[in-house]
Design brief:
With 241 residues, this protein is α/β, with parallel strands linked by helices. The protein has two domains: 3-150, Response regulator (Rossmann fold); 158-230, Arc Repressor Mutant, subunit A (Orthogonal Bundle), CATH 1.10.10.10. It has helices spanning 3-14, 26-37, 51-61, 77-87, 102-111, 123-134, 142-155, 160-166, 171-181, 186-193, 197-211, 216-225; strands at residues 17-22, 42-48, 65-68, 92-97, 115-118. Strands 2-1-3-4-5 form a five-stranded parallel sheet, with helices on both faces. The longest helix is centred in the C-terminal third of the chain and has 15 residues, at 197-211. The protein is globular and about 50 Å long. It holds the Pfam family Response_reg.
């Protein structure tokens, strides 16, 4: 790492993550703000009560992570997520949902969300999730997303162009993609493959570049769509989903 890059990383690490909270429930927004304000590594830079406000506030505050409700008046979280991807591309969206919201989550991931959490998630898990998403990880808990991923994989045949690009991956890159699709973090993948975490990050950058994908969520979807990973099948080195 160059001196400039190291200095940039240190500066970023010293600066709180900028968070936008979007929910039509005043009490929920207040609760989320209270939870997040207890952590010095996070700064709530704005709130919004619907999708229209979310886009407007995001444009003016440039958050790094948006905590997005799905069911809201005027404009829902799916439409807002899609527009944020076009107008505030640096903002990563973390959907807040309930078990009953599978249809909405399915749409939100297709719209560009980086993952989702259940609204009853514990405060410490919420904070950890925000940091994961901000760092570029996806948040796809197998226990919650299995149905959603299965539906994505079954919704349409894979794009032939994606299938062709998948053949460009090295054997190790395919191993990494399979493990990412099974919900492992970079650190967990590094431990399983006996390499440094920085090596996994490099593999992920190459995978996303070769497949022309935006983030890990899209990579997971491609892995299931193309059959590289199948629900319940053993993954690299004998792990199972």
């Amino acid at each position: 790492m160059t001196g400039h890059a190291a200095a940039t990383d240190r500066a970023t690490a010293d600066r709180p993550l900028r968070i936008l909270v979007v929910d039509d429930d005043d009490l929920m927004r207040a609760g989320l703000r209270a939870v997040l304000s207890s952590d010095d590594s996070i700064a709530v830079v704005g709130e919004a009560a619907d999708g229209y406000e979310a886009v407007e506030v995001a444009r003016s505050t440039t958050p790094e992570v948006v905590l997005m409700d799905v069911r809201m008046p005027r404009r829902d979280g799916i439409a807002a997520t899609r527009e944020l991807g076009e107008t505030v591309p640096g903002a990563r969206v973390l959907i807040l949902t309930t078990f009953e919201d599978d249809d909405y989550v399915f749409g939100a991931l297709n719209a560009g969300a980086s993952g989702f959490l259940l609204k009853r998630t514990r405060p410490e898990q919420l904070i950890e999730a925000i940091h994961m998403v901000a760092a570029g990880d996806s948040l796809l808990s197998p226990s919650v997303t299995r149905t959603v991923i299965d539906r994505m994989a079954a919704s349409a045949p894979p794009d032939p162009a994606i299938v062709g690009r998948l053949r460009e991956l090295t054997a190790r890159e395919r191993d990494v993609l399979q493990l990412v699709a099974r919900g492992l973090s970079n650190l967990e993948i590094a431990a399983k493959l006996f390499v440094e975490e920085s090596t996994i990050k490099t593999h992920m950058k190459r995978i996303l570049a070769k497949l022309d994908l935006r983030d890990r969520v899209q990579a997971v979807i491609v892995a299931y769509e193309t059959g590289l990973v199948r629900p319940g099948a053993a993954g690299p080195h004998g792990d199972s989903g």
